[in-house]
## 1
Amino acid sequence: MEAEMDSDLGGDRLTLYGAEFSSRLLAGTAQYPSPAILSRAIAAAKAEIVTVSLRRESGGSRSGERFFALIRELGVRLLPNTAGCRSVREAVTTAQMAREVFDTPWIKLEVIGEEDTLQPDVFGLVEAASILTRDGFQVFPYTTEDLVAAEKLLGAGCEVLMPWGSPIGSGRGLNNPYALKSLRAHFPDVPMIIDAGIGAPSHAAVAMEMGFDAVLSNTAIAKAGDPVKMARAFALAVEAGRTGYRADLMQARDMAAPSTPVIGRAFSSRARA
Amino acid sequence: MHIHVNGKALDVAAATLAALLRELEYEDGAVATALNQIFVRKSDRGKTPLKEGDAVEILAPRQGG
């Protein structure tokens, strides 16, 4: 039975822009207590894709190079981001710079529109996605659960969507499950990765049970008391949620329904026919 | 020449972007560059002249979410 389960999961691959992956947990690389803990957490998460960024560096400093060397040792696929960009121009230029340094057409496109929630500016996002896909990028847009924005991002050439669960770093989980379910149902064949706001393994499991294709987690793992153990918990939760989704969840109902057979119960007032 | 590098005002002698990286002791391959918010490929740095008031960004890999 276990072998059957393993083989079943082995055939359940995540496909992103034609590349296949076994793991459905993507991991961020920021905010870890140390590079060593980062490496161990990525291994414990069984993540095959990690997010990275570009930041200003002083001349003579080699910290970027050291970080890049560490990440290369992990043997994972890199998904550079445009985190913190607040205009189309900033996001497009940062994406072009990331493509050269990280040598990948993948870009997690963020165009931030609001300071308190760090919510995506979906208008700028669509414009930047359109520019970048025409330039050969494979864009992973960080978006809201808005159906119209999703439609326009797909029209701009995006083949993957990254809807938020809740604001970045908030750990609030899935703020709007109704809208996320609606998004999933409207675009059943588009790979969707829940990004941002995931605070606990249970949030990741719920997202996977809803039929989302993968989850990206950074803060919840990196800022845990034991990031390595939390990475393992997230890996298990994502696998459990995905397996549950594929096993076809029962429908919830308003009224109780006995699970133990009623017929033959002792002390009933009369025998049933 | 007075320019801005990563948001900081500097007086530099370099006439091109490639020369600026050498002057400021950057490793050529480990960083990406932009001039006045426009991306400049590594292969184009040597033929990209700098002028008074330019804003240069020099970015390196960093942790990200």
## 2
Amino acid sequence: MQRLERKHPLSIRWFHWINFVVLAILVWSGLLIYWANAVYGIRFGSRELFHFFPDSWFVAFGLNQRLAEGMAWHFFAMWLFAANGLLYVLALAISGEWRHLVPKRGSMRIAIQVFLHDLHLRKAPPEGAGDKYNGAQRYAYTGVVLMGIGSVLTGLAIHKPIQASGLAALLGGYDFARQLHFWLMGAFVLFFGVHVAQVMRAGWNNFRAMVTGYELTDIPEAPKSTPAAAPALKEKAG
Amino acid sequence: MSEIHDDPARQMRAISRRSFLWAAAAVVGAWGAIRWIASRRTERGLVWPLRRALDATDAFGQDFYEPARLAPTFDASRINAKPRVNGEEGQPEERAKDFELIVEGMAGDEPRTLRLKDIQALPKVEMITELHCIEGWTQTVRWGGAWFSDFVKAYPPDGAPDYVAMETADGVYFVGLDMGSAMHPQTLLCYEMNGAPLEFEHGAPLRLVIPVKYGIKNIKWLGRIRYADERPKDFWAEEGYDWFAGL
């Protein structure tokens, strides 16, 4: 037997998918801007291990010589990103959905269990299977909201370093704030990669819930029969 | 969590159909909107929907511009001894021998012609501020010269213009400034850099240093200042950048 369970409210599904499109535009247009002063890299001592990015990379992806266009897209999409993010946080707060998202006592322990389990370093499934989001998800989904706030603040600091000079100083000055803004972009891309991998692992039913709002759940075969088999532990991710 | 009984698999199919149709419409809509924006005619270097959006953001920035907020000043240890050179538009063939600064928009019909000594006769000031290039890099420099506000006191406009236009002598490079930013207490007519006379490639003999704007507004090889009632054209704003360009 199966039953339908409501999983994601309509508002959160819209905010999620709008954010996907807007963030994609921001990352792309941000790279058009970054090209004009592409100075960051991963350094080990005085050696640069990897430069973000080689010229050939910008050319191959058509990201060179488009600074003005990049700024125009970026300063358009930034409003959508901030508004959508604000509405998302408000919806979380009003609906009480935040309770599923914010880490609680024991979340760190479970997050470590999830991490080890997913890397096949731990056999036993993580605790807390009844929760909507496991400990790792709670940290990831709360963290990504904080990253969004960080991107808005560092963005404001480098967009208006004099009108918002207090904020810029708080973030270590113009150059450091620009670096933070860049690495936050990198963190979003990293988040995206792990998120997609986890959603693929979790399967269609889980993914479909982010579009439809509903998930099909197994109801354990119930009464009189012989000792019931333990209900299959379902993976919850995505 | 609410539960719905009565053949859940069938209900799931019905809900999925509806939701995925919405999703498909949203994908097509978003894609169509982006394609539409990207294929509009160009206005001042940008497709017009982006130009309008940028102008609106620009106006918003201008509304929030607060002239009393000063650009941070720095310790001499932060100075870039050899500041980066960028931008050759409007650079004369060679260093001008008889420098002239033409001022238009003062009382009377005739433009005024000033010499460097006229600017140097104004109270001399120094400041160590950052120059933010719109490309994303920054240089810290000790600038020396005369406050633009002192210049305006000495050579006042006729009436109360909202703008000031500045150009190189050949008119190849030109910037437009709102009077509010031009009159910012740190806007400088600059003839010295890091304690030495301004170098040619940095705009000698006279350039503008306006810390509340991106580098593109800090015009070099200044040859003409014109008080204006209408918003003057701006070299880079014609090429897709924002006109206000305030920091």
